[in-house]
Amino acid sequence: MTPEQRKTIARELAPNGTLRAGINLSNFLLVSGRHDNGDPFGVAPDMAHAIGEALDLPVKLVPFESPGAIVDATADDKWDICLIGAEPARAAIISFTKAYVEILATYLVPAGSPLQTIAEVDSPGIRIAVAERAAYDLWLVANIKHATLMHAQGIDGAFQLFVDQQLEALACLKPRLLSDVEKLPGSRILDGQFTSVQQAIGTHKHNTNGAEFLSAFVRQATTNGLVASLIAKHGVNGLSVAAG
Fold first, then answer.
1. Which CATH architecture has domain 3-101+197-241?
2. Does this model's pTM top 0.85?
3. What is the residue-level pLDDT of the chain in tens, covering all 244 positions?
4. Which residues contact 132 (CB under 8 A, 6 or more apart)?
5. What is the CATH topology of the domain spanning 104-195?
6. Which of 146, 108, 102 shows the shortest CA–CA distance to 129?
7. Residue 92: which H helix or E strand, with range?
């Protein structure tokens, strides 16, 4: 990429001169915590900074409490790029790259549950607790035919709903369920996955050159070791570099 091409892409993606990156605070695998000044840190923030460095742009991290909040802000000029799950419902209004990491999603069932397989969960009378508008919730909304989805605000809210109402299943990212199962004696995580959440980088639909640049950046980052190095740097268990 020539210096002039870099400048053109930078102007398109960040017309105000600073690349504003929408960061989903609820994804504990991609956001490890926050600095004293409130800025998030982790794999996703580091990816945003790497993009800014490639374009010679300063980066401003814009935290959101959920991916749904980022999507809702698409038309409000609050971010230039976003780092969230690339789901079809979101892709209708956001241009996404291929995934740079993926996370398995499955179910937790309570002690004594007769459910043994993921397929059995989608049955009449089964109530599934899930964080509303999480990427895996969007998959469930589109694919669950017989069970009932019980929505809560955030991952912690879904866990509490599952416990308080004694629901039949809790849908979540497997790394989170590995900690939840320790809190509930006799509970089990079902083998396999109902989906894998493809975490990608998005930008506004009108940024066609910028979208092409971001796609090329992600392809390189997944093959040259950048993504793997960020996962190792932050010591994240449960994240996998997405296949090329």
1. 3-Layer(aba) Sandwich (3.40)
2. no
3. 898 999 999 999 999 999 999 999 999 899 999 999 999 999 999 999 999 999 999 999 999 999 999 999 999 999 999 999 998 889 999 999 999 999 999 999 999 999 999 999 999 999 999 999 898 999 999 999 999 999 999 999 999 999 999 999 999 999 999 999 999 999 999 999 999 888 999 999 999 999 999 999 999 999 999 999 999 999 998 889 998 6
4. 68, 151, 152, 153
5. D-Maltodextrin-Binding Protein; domain 2 (3.40.190)
6. 108
7. none
